[in-house]
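hey can u check if this looks right to u? its 213 residues, i copy pasted from the old doc so theres a chance i mangled smth
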Amino acid sequence: MRWPATLVLALQLVACGGQPRAPDWQLEAHSSLERYQAAWLAGDLRAADAEFTRARRQLAATGQASLVARAELTRCALGVAALVFGSCAGFEPLRADAGEAERAYASYLQGEPVAADRLPAQHRPMAGGSADVAALAKVQDPLARLVAAGVLVRTGRASPQVLQVAADTASQQGWRRPLAAWLQAQLRLAEQAGASEQAEHLRRRLALVVGER
């Protein structure tokens, strides 16, 4: 099974043709998780919370812990992509009933070593603990690239080049919340290095992103 790039869940949505219509819970959960992700990345947390609650309710109605676990891991992955680190509290009560793939991904998000073949395909290039910025830049899925960069920060292995790749990725996608987080990380680094001109540039850019300019 290959999880979608957003890691929402592997729902089999029926597009057309003489196939049976997908159950309502699949359609509604899929749509809500997509809207959740879009709202969260844009920084609209109120809308994001509402959509996530709606999606989780639909998934929980199936009684399948792995589906709910994937939704919770999606939330944790978005946090890592924006340098919001925590224990993935929503996943932990589901761990015992989640599958091996879900537990492996949870470990990856925490910065723990995980065999590449236990992860979704888009995360495998960085699963071996590589901090090679060239390898990071080659991760094709933008969100997976940001998650990998966040894992490198979490484990203390992120170079200034990693921060730049992440900031460029968030900028290209127009993802306000992660871009602000990566710019702040770059700003702290510039201030620590005494790079005043670079720091001032980053402050102006950050102000533009958060609507203060």
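The chain has one domain: 24-209.
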